[in-house]
Amino acid sequence: MSIRAEASDDATEAKGTEGGGDGTLRCLDLPPDQAAGLLENINPHPNDEHIRFRESDHKYWIDDDASDIVSSTGFIHGFFEEFDGERAIRFILRGRKWANDPTYKYYMKDREEILQMWETNRVQASEAGTKMHAAIEYRLNGLPVASEQTSAPEWSMYLDYEAAHRHLEPWRTEQMVYSKALRLTGSIVGWTVVSWSLPLVVHNLDWICKQDMQYRAPDGTIVMA
Predict the structure, then answer these.
(1) Residue 1 maps to a domain
(2) How far apart are CA 83 and CA 117, in angstroms?
(3) Residue 200: pLDDT above 80?
(4) Residues near 51 by Cβ (< 8 Å), separated by ≥ 6?
(5) Rounded to an integer, what distance in angstroms lies between the CA atom of residue 116 and that of residue 223?
(6) SS3 225
(7) Which end of the chain is more exposed for a tag (fewer CB within 10 A), N or C?
(8) pTM above 0.85, yes or no
(9) 142 belongs to a structural domain
């Protein structure tokens, strides 16, 4: 059985069958011949029947019960302090670069301008990430990808990754998982199988769109990825 988003009066409309839209395959109502070829139907799991999801408001149900459910995203966020934008802006406005370095991205910008910059970047990153997730999911499930998405630089980066990892066999995309005891839910972006011989080796994949990817090297220096 195909896993679909929970239907409701305020559910989002079904998307078309060309990838790169605003939602995952859970938002689609595909004809039977196309739905049969989806990874979720080729490689079903018994737990698929016990969890449902509505993408419009990111709501999960476990056995038709949505009470006390925490998503994995919300669970992880609970371990981090919420970003204090006002505090960050105070540091920016007091910094030497703010008034002296024309190349500084916040040069002579006031509080409202900085907040607007952040909001614009947040929306653009969110939309780009959603579209990239959908496009890759469509490709892994054998569905066509929208031409507007294939022109994005991130798409060529994904194709390079795919070409270098042809030994990986796609298994599932956006597989919903849960713990009934902990009331914890989430979605695994992608499973691929490396080897079917024992011990079984799989990769858990995720795709991130980010302007600047940094990590701290063993010697403590910050490196741009």
Answers:
(1) no
(2) 15
(3) no
(4) 60, 61, 62, 176, 177, 178, 185
(5) 28
(6) coil
(7) C
(8) no
(9) yes
Residues in the chain: 225
> What sign results for the dihedral spanned by CA atoms 131, 214, 107, 81?
positive
- Scored b (16 or more CB within 10 A) or e, 178-213 reads beeeeebbbbbbbbbbeeeeeeeeeeebebebeeee
Q: How many domains are contained in the chain?
A: 1
Q: Which residues contact 108 (CB under 8 A, 6 or more apart)?
A: 98, 99
Please compute the mean of the pLDDT values over residues 63-86 and round it to a whole number: 91
Tokens 């890759």, residue?
A: 136
Please state, in angstroms and rounded to a whole number, the distance separating the CA atoms of residues 84 and 82: 6
Asked, for residue 29, whether it belongs to a domain, the answer is no
CA distance 24 to 191: 15
The confidence score (pLDDT) of residue 10 equals 35
Q: Which domain holds residue 210?
A: 67-224
